[in-house]
Amino acid sequence: MKETIQILQENLGQSLWETFEMVLISGVIGIVLGTLIGLILYYYSNRLFSPRPVVNAVVGFIINAIRSLPFLILMVVLIPFAKLLAGDPYTPMGGAVSLTVAAVPFFARIAESAFAEIDQGIIEAARSTGANFWLIFQEVLFPEALPSLIRGIVLTIISLIGYSAMVGTIGAGGIGNLAIQFGYNRYDTGVLISVIVILVIIVQIIQWIGDWLAVHYTRG
Amino acid sequence: MSQIEITNVSVKFEQKNRTIDAVKDVSLKIEDGEIYGIVGLSGAGKSTLVRTINGLQKPTQGTVMVNGVDITKANKKTLAASRKKIGFIFQNFNLINNRTIGQNIAFALSAGGYPEKKQPEKIIELLSMVGLQDRKDNYPGQLSGGQKQRVGIARALANDPDILLCDEATSALDLETAEEIITILKDINERLHITIVFITHQLEVAKNLFDRVAVMENGEIVEQTTAYKLFADPKSNMAKRLVNRFLDEQLPDEVKYRLRDQPGVILTLKYQGDDSLDPVITEISGRTGVSISILQGRIEYIHSNAIGVLAVFITGGQNAISKAVQLFTEKVDMVEEVSR
């Protein structure tokens, strides 16, 4: 018990920070790039914008290809790439590389379906005002898709926290690494349980905030 | 030159194994400042046709000229400029749900390049026109259907259009609310001199609103006429069908059942003007000796012109009845024997 508390005191803060770093970097890039790619997929498939089946098929294929790899394999395959980008692949920055590569196509599909859910009639009304695409994006697509996007962001962040534990096992750090190193390898059940409890709390809080925001941005 | 000139327009939709001819070789001219109705059953191609006017639908063939601009050949910029001057009102309102009423209108204003600073004032002005100036900060979900449509009208008027396209604008509303919307549209047409193209499957809309009307069936225009003539003297089968349904000349089955065993004929008579038919009935009855009882009767006013519809039951001798029917045919605009 004493030992458990000591381990947690020495490592928990650092591990949480590393997880936060990985999830933040991959989450932000994943959501921004994913939204952009989702928008491209939507734009080139909607008959009211500019249907280009070929562009859509090519982008869609690349996304599916990345998404069809199990994360563990994607992570291993990307080690050289992480080295190139982050210098040392066995750091939170290195870990963030593979997490980002997984997050982008994941969120792209979420964003695409969030846009596709918008009533075609609303898009038609927007088009008939003569508005350009940027204005339609800002004032129609974005607010109408926002609740779905928020739910997708929650889903993505929670998945990334889970994946970050996997990245941790190959040495990128984070809270998952803490659980494996001390809880599993050194048989300290206390550490393992503490990590589980902390993860459950974090995920719950994120879900609550996300649900609240999604409801808040769904107006009357 | 007319404000809207649709010439030989066809729209085909290619589907997997077949081609659907939504609009077939339609030509129409709509004049500046008139209220033009396009009526027909759903699926007749009305929505597709009206969308060719603002380029939401590209015709497969033909040209669409609006204010001298060929919409079918316009580039992006010209098309956007034309669209700003063509308001569009939809059956399902199509407001941005997660934006306030004010923001919905601001969007249309921004689309038309209206300076942001002056927008709040213009938004109030537009909402006042439809009586919703105090709902600026509400979201669409907080309004009733009729109120949403009024916002739809305010949005469509944002960029001072000279044409308003209405796609079944009253079909999702109850009759009373539909009347309200029609009154607003009529008022807009009169005060702002905006041309209105209104498509609907509801003929009751036509009787108060339209100046001229086209009847569509299976992608074709089968009749072009004035609103009054459509009701008084429909020529095409589709027009007759629509008008008959509206005038409800069909006698209830109960009435026919009640008369099943009695010898005689049932006639429906349609006549223009609001004179009573009493003298005619009395005269014919007196001259032929038949007895005539009135089963059903009503008068509809189309732009203050009356159309009367009467169903009568004639009994008497065979020859007397034939003579009576012949006399009615001479004195009344339309006589139809109702099969029993």
Automatic annotation (TrEMBL), chain A:
Domain of life: Bacteria
Gene3D superfamilies: MetI-like
Location relative to the cell: Cell membrane
PROSITE patterns the record matches: ABC_TM1 (PS50928)
Gene Ontology cellular component terms for the protein in this record: plasma membrane
Matching Pfam families: BPD_transp_1
GO aspect biological process, one term: D-methionine transmembrane transport
Transmembrane segments annotated in the record for this chain: 22-45, 57-82, 153-179, 191-210
UniProt entry keywords in alphabetical sequence: Cell membrane, Membrane, Transmembrane, Transmembrane helix, Transport
Residues annotated as domain ABC transmembrane type-1: 16-210
Topology versus the membrane: Multi-pass membrane protein
Similarity comment text for this entry: Belongs to the binding-protein-dependent transport system permease family.
Cited PANTHER family: ABC TRANSPORTER PERMEASE, D-METHIONINE TRANSPORT SYSTEM PERMEASE PROTEIN METI-RELATED
Official protein name in the record: Metal ABC transporter permease
Organism of derivation: Lentilactobacillus rapi
Lineage: Bacteria, Bacillati, Bacillota, Bacilli, Lactobacillales
Automatic annotation (TrEMBL), chain B:
Family: Belongs to the ABC transporter superfamily.
Entries under Pfam families matching the protein: ABC_tran (PF00005), NIL (PF09383)
Alphabetical list of SMART domains matching this protein: AAA, NIL
An MF annotation (GO) of this entry: ATP hydrolysis activity
Signal peptide: none
Organism domain of life: Bacteria
The UniProt record lists the keyword Acyltransferase: no
Gene, per the UniProt record: metN2_2
PROSITE patterns the UniProt entry points to: ABC_TRANSPORTER_1, ABC_TRANSPORTER_2
PANTHER family per the UniProt record, alphabetical: AMINO ACID IMPORT ATP-BINDING PROTEIN, METHIONINE IMPORT ATP-BINDING PROTEIN METN
Keyword Transmembrane applies: no
Gene3D superfamilies assigned to the protein according to its UniProt record, in alphabetical order: 3.30.70.260, P-loop containing nucleotide triphosphate hydrolases
Single GO BP term: amino acid transport
Reaction(s) the record says it catalyses: ATP + H2O = ADP + phosphate + H(+)
Domain ABC transporter: 4-243
Protein name: Methionine import ATP-binding protein MetN 2
Originating organism: Lentilactobacillus rapi
Role this protein plays: Part of the ABC transporter FtsEX involved in cellular division. Has ATPase activity. Essential for cell division and viability.
A GO term from the CC aspect: plasma membrane
Keywords on record: Amino-acid transport, ATP-binding, Cell membrane, Membrane, Nucleotide-binding, Translocase, Transport
SUPFAM superfamilies: ACT-like, P-loop containing nucleoside triphosphate hydrolases
